[in-house]
Design goal:
alpha+beta, two-stranded antiparallel ribbon, about 25% helix, 4 strands, about 70 residues
């Protein structure tokens, strides 16, 4: 699955706004049907400094803070 972050990385990284997401289509569909599908978003990896799609665990952590 591919995702697009509506809030892309800095302008020098703009090409990375389109990125590969973790779930397969079946997993994505299951999450959507069960209301567990989160907005795709980019995060900057702390180790490498590269921009990448957030993992499902990261998204769940953020949601638990609400």
């Amino acid at each position: 699955m591919w995702a697009w972050d509506p809030n892309p990385a800095p302008s020098d990284e703009i090409g990375k706004a389109l990125f590969k997401e973790e779930p397969s289509f079946c997993e994505w569909l299951d999450r959507w049907l069960n209301r567990r599908l989160f907005q795709p978003c980019l995060v900057q990896d702390l180790d490498s400094g590269e921009w990448r799609g957030a993992t499902e665990e990261e998204k769940l952590t953020w949601m638990s803070d609400w």
